[in-house]
Amino acid sequence: MLRVIFDTNIYGLIAEDEKGTAIAEKIFNDKEFIVYGFQIIRKELRDTPKGEKLGKLNKRNYLLHLYDELTKGRYLNDSIQINKLALKFYNSFRQFGGIKTWQDIKNDFTIVACAHFYKLELIISDDSRTLLSKPALKAFKHISIKEGLWSPSFWKYSELRSKYISE
Question: Which of 20, 41, 167 is nearest to 114 (CA)?
Answer without folding.
Answer: 41
